């Protein structure tokens, strides 16, 4: 019997998590003992992938800091635009990630309201389907995002609308 996509994702994460963390530390020029708090996505998501990440983070926290911060995966997406941009509040945030597609009214940091969400396959899965049709590989989101960035689209993350609200589109890879 063939493995399911969630199982394949969990196995892949298990193989890649340590080398990715090592590379991130090397690029940042820090050691594990330099980190004060370990943050990890705790919900929602694929159970196997969450288990891999949470167990890995717990081990690091136990070894280094004893401080572990659980992060809601969807809240991370809602506020991820603030990493590179400074969008003014309030704004609408459309998240399309794997099995979650939702529209939020974001009023401030930590203050956001779910306006609506899909009840079937998420719009984020459309990237995987399009990528498969174009033979671009899996997962499709990062590949399509890279190609879109190479096309030099203006403001493809933030769209200003003629009302006092911005629309932030978040398509994480």
Secondary structure layout:
Blueprint: H1 5-28, E1 38-43, H2 47-64, E2 68-72, H3 73-79, E3 91-97, E4 100-108, E5 111-117, H4 124-133, H5 140-150, E6 158-160, E7 166-170
Parallel strand pairs: 1-2, 3-7
Antiparallel strand pairs: 3-4, 4-5, 6-7
Helix pairs in contact: 1-2, 4-5
Written description of the protein model:
- The protein has 173 residues and is α/β, with parallel strands linked by helices.
- It folds into 2 domains: 62 residues, ATPase, nucleotide binding domain (Nucleotidyltransferase, domain 5, 2-Layer Sandwich); 91 residues, no CATH class.
- It is 40% helix and 24% strand.
- The chain is built from 5 helices and 7 strands.
- Strand 6 and strand 7 form a beta hairpin.
- The two termini are 28 Å apart.
């Amino acid at each position: 019997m063939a493995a399911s996509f969630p199982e394949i994702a969990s196995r892949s994460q298990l193989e890649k998590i340590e080398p990715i963390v090592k590379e991130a530390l090397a690029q940042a020029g820090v050691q594990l003992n330099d980190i004060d708090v370990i943050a990890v996505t705790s919900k929602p998501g694929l159970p196997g992938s969450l288990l891999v990440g949470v167990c890995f983070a717990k081990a690091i926290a136990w070894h280094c800091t004893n401080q572990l911060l659980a992060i809601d995966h969807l809240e991370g997406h809602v506020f991820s635009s603030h990493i590179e941009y400074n969008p003014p509040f309030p704004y609408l945030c459309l998240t399309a990630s794997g099995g979650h597609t939702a529209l939020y009214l974001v009023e401030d940091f930590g203050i956001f309201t779910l306006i609506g969400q899909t009840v079937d396959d998420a719009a984020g899965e459309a990237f995987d389907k399009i990528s498969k049709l174009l033979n671009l590989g899996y997962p499709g989101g990062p590949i399509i995002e890279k190609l879109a960035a190479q096309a030099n689209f203006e403001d493809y993350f933030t769209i200003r609308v003629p009302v006092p609200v911005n629309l932030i589109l978040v398509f994480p890879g």
